[in-house]
Amino acid sequence: MHDLRSFIDTVRRERPRDVLDIHRTVSPRYETAAIVTKLEQSSRFPIVLFHDVDRSTFPVVSNVCGTQARLALALGCSIRGLRERYGEACEQPIKPELKKEGPVQEHIFVGKEVNLKTLPQLVYHQDDAPQPYITAAIIVARDPQTGKSNLSFHRLMIMNENTTAIFMARGKHLDRIYRKYESTGEPMPIAAFLGVHPACSLGALYTGTSEVEEYDIIGGLLRSPLQVVKCMTNQLHVPAEAEFVLEGFVSPGKRIGEGPFGEFTGYATGMACCPIFTVQALTCRDNAFFQDIVSGLTEHLLLPIPGMEHRLLTLARAAVPATTAVKVAAPLTVFVAIKKQDDSQPERLMEELLDCDIYVKQVVVVDADVDVSDFRQVVTAIALHARPDRDIFIKRRCLGTELDPSCESPDGITTKIGINATLPLNGLRPVNRNRVPQQLLDSIDVSELLRHSCEVQVPE
Ligand SMILES: Cc1cc2nc3c(=O)[nH]c(=O)nc-3n(C[C@H](O)[C@H](O)[C@H](O)COP(=O)(O)O)c2cc1C
Ligand SMILES: [Mn+2]
After folding, report:
1. Ligand 1 nearest-atom number relative to CA 174
2. What atom of ligand 1 comes closest to residue 359's alpha carbon?
3. Of 2, 324, 359, 406, which has fewest CB within 10 angstroms of its CB?
């Protein structure tokens, strides 16, 4: 079984300190977000189960994917193996299995019975829009031309009993699919599901070609087909064991003001202009858990990383086979290491990576002996290897994201930067890294040397 409940049970068994049950009544306005935020500020990242959220009968579960250790537990690999495991799933995708029925349809509300106000009405940050948000919804839609299905996360702003605004980043697959429907004046059927095993969340964040269906990546991640059922009111398929599904359509030609909403960057960037999702049916499991992701906290940043690093490493290696490592280090920031064979390679890498994704805005290229997961080493390489007049590349008028607070325009058009922090292969002056003979290092016994010293010193 690969659902949210079984995963929480596994975490309770394998990592009991990773689940925090909160039974007292909490407010959906800021308080659930505040508790997860405060825990994070205290370096604690548990799954938090809010059993009693004011004005809703549904419990809320937050921070399910808040640590790499839990993602690794979900995929049956090590933390360091996450990217590779993702790569294996992409190489061996597995089609979903269509079932006649599933627990996600244990309760069905159709038409006038739909009331989004029965869901937890979560409000996160004090400068956000007053309307509540659903943050952990994965949207499924089908391309009207290719028939391929697509999954991606989209924040939903609850407007009334049966409509939400839906934020779709420009150029991403759902936005492109929506524009195809819109160009023919048709509504786009969608379903939003939430409350899923982490493999579903990670698979939904596959960012490669639209030829690949994210459901198959989820199967690859699970090493078995994901079980899906057909929606009640349209032809789309949703995970049979999800906690909730909202079925409906996005109307053509209509937009409304949405937000502000504090995002993964840690900032809200004003109001967006978003299409409208009309909900025709709401289905859920018995005693359904409402899944939540507090935007801007670690969980939000961690989730896209395995998929993104797999794709960026694949693209980087195709452009420059000498690439040795890729790290998504911070929002919009990628570090890449290369065993350089000629001095034109770093620029080629930067071009490739800056172009490939709206969420890549700065790329730093370092030599292979720099550890890309160590900020200090990368910053040191920038200071010591790069010459600003020669090694900084500015790319103007690129498609980035309007969620970047430095981006002045709502179309996401911005400037990107690449920093070549590799040493030139044939510089004007000889440059060698400090080295002492390895043989000598190997022969020195530290405990023998320190036998008479009572203090162990750690450098600051
Ligand atoms: C928690 C979370 C929330 C997200 N919210 C949105 C959103 O509101 N709008 C959006 O366009 N992308 C959002 N994303 C990013 C997309 O899910 C991501 O870019 C996706 O991989 C795009 O898929 P595609 O390549 O099929 O277009 C979110 C990601 C996460 C992890
Ligand atoms: Mn896609």
Report:
1. 27
2. 19
3. 406
Task: Give mean pLDDT, residues 339-360.
Answer: 97
Task: Say which amino acid occupies 70.
Answer: R
Determine how many CB atoms are found less than 10 A away from the CB of residue 234.
17
Give dist(CA 113, CA 118) in Å, integer: 11
pLDDT band at 458 (very low <50, low <70, confident <90, very high): low
Positions of E strands within 67-125: 97-98, 107-110
Q: How far apart are CA 199 and CA 71, in angstroms?
A: 8
Q: What is the pLDDT of residue 81?
A: 97
The pLDDT value given to residue 390? 96
Q: Buried b vs exposed e over 425-449: b needs ≥16 C-beta within 10 Å?
A: eeeeeeeeeeeeeeeeeeeeeeeee
Nearest ligand to the C-alpha of residue 174?
Answer: 1
Residues, CB-to-ion distance under 5 Å, ligand 2:
150, 173
Q: Tell me, in angstroms, the distance from the centre of ligand 1 to residue 178's CA.
A: 15
Q: Is the pLDDT of residue 456 over 80?
A: no
One-letter amino acid for residue 368 of the chain: A
Q: Which of 49, 73, 69 is nearest to 61 (CA)?
A: 49
Who lines ligand 1 at CB under 6 A? Answer: 135, 150, 152-155, 167-169, 172-174, 205, 207, 293, 300, 303-304
- Token pair of 326, please? 């890729």
pTM of the model: 0.96
Please report, for residues 129, 270, 355, 415, the alpha-carbon distance to residue 408 in angstroms, rounded to integers and kept in the order given: 20, 11, 19, 10
d(CA 168, CA 163) in angstroms, rounded, equals: 16
Alpha carbon separation from 58 to 117, 132, 165, 454 (Å, rounded): 11, 15, 22, 58
Q: How far apart are CA 133 and CA 123, in angstroms?
A: 6
- Is the distance from CB of 242 to CB of 193 less than 8 angstroms? yes
Which of 128, 135, 172 to probe ligand 1 with, by most ligand atoms within 8 A of CB? 172
Compute the distance from residue 453 Cα to the ligand 1 centre, in Å.
Answer: 55
CA 273 – CA 313 distance, rounded (Å): 34
Q: Report the candidate in 188, 393, 221, 417 with the shortest Cα–Cα distance to residue 306.
A: 221
With contact defined as beta carbons under 8 Å apart, do 199 and 172 qualify?
Answer: no
Which ligand 1 atom is at minimum distance from the Cα of 214? 26
